[in-house]
Amino acid sequence: MLYNDYKGMKLSRLGFGCMRFKTDENGVIDQEKVNAMFDLAIANGVNYFDTAYPYLNGNSEIAMVKGLEKYPRESYYLADKFPGHSLPGPVDNIALFHVSLKKCNTDYFDFYLLHNITEWSIQFYDSEEYHIIQDMIKMREEGKIRHLGFSFHGGAELLESFLTKYEGVFEFVQIQCNYLDWTLQDAKRKYEIITSHGLDVWVMEPLRGGKLAVLPEEASAKLKRFDPDASDASYAFRYLQQYPAIKVILSGMTEPSEVEDNLKAFAAEKPITEEETAVLYEIAESMKTGVPCTGCRYCCKGCPAELDIPLLLECYNTYKTAEGNVPASMRLDGLAEDKRADSCVGCGQCTHACPQGIDVPAVMQELDRLYKEAPSWADLSKDRKVSIARDLGMN
Ligand code: SF4
Ligand code: SF4
């Protein structure tokens, strides 16, 4: 296993993401499979396990801990997340934190994250009324959180302003990063912002929900020319291993065969070559079905509606690459109503200014349709809010 040093710890570079455990048609987790996967991962050096309060309807935390119960607590690192994006209103954050501690049968988390910060959820996380950050700092001071960070699904501007406002508070940031999102979701810029604040990067979705694990035949054949035995997924992992600030790469594994394959990519250093990287970027380009916005912002100055055009196009690209993408809808929910795509008046000045020649007014129309057709976050999060209220004995 490859390891990274982080504040005196030796973290396995491959982290076990616990959001994709196998479930039956009633949503019951296959615990035997979880146990078998954990045994295999631990025997091969994995020591980092990541869950979140809402994963698998609140059952991921419990299944994770059952899978770990025969191992000494100090032999692995536990990461969990605070569901600030799903709260039914201002709640007793510390009581909710203790619900997670109890479910995980522990009295501390090695790593604890504010879950899913976006342009929408920031209104709760950055709110005096909700005082989430202040409470989590308190939990860290009491030793119940060893290292505090956040997972992030918003845009680069929000990331910069949030880190600047809370300079010195957070110790790491978890972002969606892979060779496709390096450009598609601005992960390169986000990596640079995080490191410019002196922080390290945790990666989620290294395989983009499995999309990069099983590539289209033609793309996969290009990689097979380098090594007929290497899996498509192994290239995605080796691509990320080249970035020194990336300390943990979380893979949400479902089957033991995936654990085996993932482990191979983290068994020994095998730096990705320039030639391989060039092919990965070529494959990424072929997978992009959205627009080639580079985020240069030349279009923004003269927009009569004062829209954040690159942000809107990023959301559009997210919809086009991952159907029903919740983070895209959530980001749009977070914008003032007059800053969404339906405020575009179709003047076309942006297209004239755009070096990429993007037909922005046409994209705005389609984005508006995609946004209005997607399920709203308010509807999707209803059950989560109810379960938080229940766990806190509210009513
Ligand atoms: S076409 Fe729409 S997005 Fe472009 S400048 Fe005009 S109002 Fe703004
Ligand atoms: S000018 Fe074109 S490439 Fe640049 S941010 Fe605007 S839409 Fe994107």
What would your notes on this structure say?
The model has no long low-confidence stretch (mean pLDDT 93). The strands form two sheets. An eight-stranded parallel barrel has the order 3-4-5-6-7-8-9-10, surrounded by four helices. A two-stranded antiparallel sheet has the order 1-2. It folds into two domains: 279 residues, Alpha-Beta Barrel (TIM Barrel); 71 residues, no CATH class. A hairpin with a 2-residue loop joins strand 1 and strand 2. The longest helix is centred in the C-terminal third of the chain and has 14 residues. The protein is of the alpha/beta class. The chain is built from 18 helices and ten strands. Helix content is 42%, strand content 14%. Helix 6 packs parallel to helix 8, helix 10 crosses helix 11 and helix 13 packs across helix 16. Bound molecules: iron/sulfur cluster (2 copies). The site of one iron/sulfur cluster has 15 residues, from helix 13.
Biggest pleated sheet: 8 strands, parallel, barrel
| Low-pLDDT ranges | none
**Domains (count):** 2
What is the CATH-assigned architecture of the largest domain? Alpha-Beta Barrel
Rg calculated over all Cα atoms: 21 Å
Beta strand %: 5-15%
CATH uppermost class of the largest domain: Alpha Beta
Please report the number of helical segments: 18
Order of helices and strands: EEEHEHEHEHHEHEHHEHHEHHHHHHHH
Placed side by side, the strands forming the largest sheet appear as: 3-4-5-6-7-8-9-10
Mean of residue pLDDT? 93
CATH topology of the largest domain: TIM Barrel
Structural class: alpha/beta
- In angstroms, what separates the terminal alpha carbons? 47 Å
Shape: globular
Please name the fourth-level CATH homologous superfamily of the largest domain: NADP-dependent oxidoreductase domain
